[in-house]
Write a structure and sequence with these properties.
The chain has 176 residues and is α+β, with helices and mostly antiparallel strands. It has a domain of 70 residues. The protein has eight helices and four strands, in the order H-H-E-H-H-E-H-H-E-H-H-E. It has a four-stranded mixed beta sheet with strand order 1-2-4-3, with helices on one face. Belongs to the PIGL family.
Length: 176
């Protein structure tokens, strides 16, 4: 629930506002508040527990595409890495992920590429990947508006992220 600094309720509202900016209705937003899955950048979550919760959500919502972090979690955040581990656990188990559901993994890039914004488009086009998403200027501005909804998390380095991150312009993914 995003309760690392005891801001769970604030962060839930920020998530709903952010999703609204992206055109995602509140009825499609699920917040998991589980005592064994604390919002803590130093805690690795139990992959089996998380895998079970993710699979239940996929089946309940009839989801056909999952986009998750890779093994480096984009920022090295232990919770992000745990999510990747759980989804990989689901995909590797026979018949765990329904056949109608594909899983794409967001590529973590080095620090230099992470903060060169649109200049990474050329590099990303030249490197192997299964999918490449290049946002239009309008989509980039929409993503920035959505990020700004997370006021409680907009520390100075995230302000830099909004200005320079390639993830607001280009995202390379691979099939899991």
């Amino acid at each position: 629930s995003g309760n690392y600094y005891n801001q769970g309720e604030i962060r839930k509202k920020e998530l709903e506002q952010s999703c609204c900016v992206l055109g995602i209705p509140a009825s499609d937003v699920t917040v998991i508040d589980h005592r064994d899955l604390p919002d803590d950048p130093a805690v690795e979550w139990d992959p089996q527990l998380l895998a079970t919760l993710v699979l239940k959500h996929i089946e309940a919502k009839n989801i056909n595409l999952v986009v998750t972090f890779d093994a480096r979690g984009v920022s090295g955040h232990a919770n992000h890495i745990s999510l990747y581990t759980a989804v990989r656990y689901n995909v590797c188990k026979p018949l765990w992920v329904p056949p109608w559901c594909q899983v794409l993994v967001l590529e973590s890039v080095n620090l230099c590429r992470k903060y060169i914004s649109f200049l990474d488009v050329l590099i990303s086009c030249l490197l192997p990947r299964d999918a490449l998403f290049i946002l239009t200027e309008e989509e980039t501005e929409q993503a920035k508006r959505a990020m700004r909804c997370h006021r409680s998390q907009l520390l100075w380095f995230r302000q830099l992220y909004l200005l320079f991150s390639r993830y607001l312009v280009v995202n390379s993914l691979r099939l899991l």
